[in-house]
Amino acid sequence: MLDLGSGLGVDSFIAAHRVGKNGRVVGLDIAKNEVKHAAKRAEARGISDYVSFVNADMEKMPFENNEFNAIISNGAFCLAPNKKAAFAEIFRVLKPGGRMSVSTSTMIVQIN
Q1: Nearest 10 degrees: CA dihedral of 77, 72, 48, 63?
Q2: Are the C-beta atoms of 58 and 4 separated by less than 8 Å?
Q3: pLDDT at residue 106, rounded to an integer
Q4: Domain boundaries 2-103, CATH class
Q5: Per-residue pLDDT tens for 41-62?
Q6: CA–CA dist 16, 20 (Å, integer)
């Protein structure tokens, strides 16, 4: 499973319970310090053998084609400047028949 915009790793840790020790979760984030912190948190939880974090841009991912069964993104996708490139990368690294879930909220606030 790939977690785009993983931040401090909260969703990656939740996903780790789903994939179990025989699976793999990779969190990808553009913020180097958050990636470092998330990796330390995974190590402290004893799950760093199947949960890892990489510093990269979702518009140009450092993964092979067809590498992941599932891809999630909880809020970070809206920050991608080039969504077309980000979606192209998602479909490149997603295995045929794989699943993706992107959660993003948008609010319109009217100021009088």
Answers
A1: -70
A2: yes
A3: 64
A4: alpha beta
A5: 999 999 999 999 999 999 999 9
A6: 6
- Sorting pLDDT into bands at 50, 70 and 90, what band is 108? confident
Contact predicate 61/42, CB 8 Å: no
For the chain, give every domain's residue range: 2-103
pLDDT of residue 102: 87
Cβ-based neighbours of 96, under 8 Å, separated by 6 or more: 66
User: From CA 88, how far away is CA 17, in angstroms rounded?
Assistant: 28
* Type of residue found at 100: M
Q: Are 9 and 48 in contact (CB under 8 A)?
A: no
Distance CA 111, CA 76 (A): 26
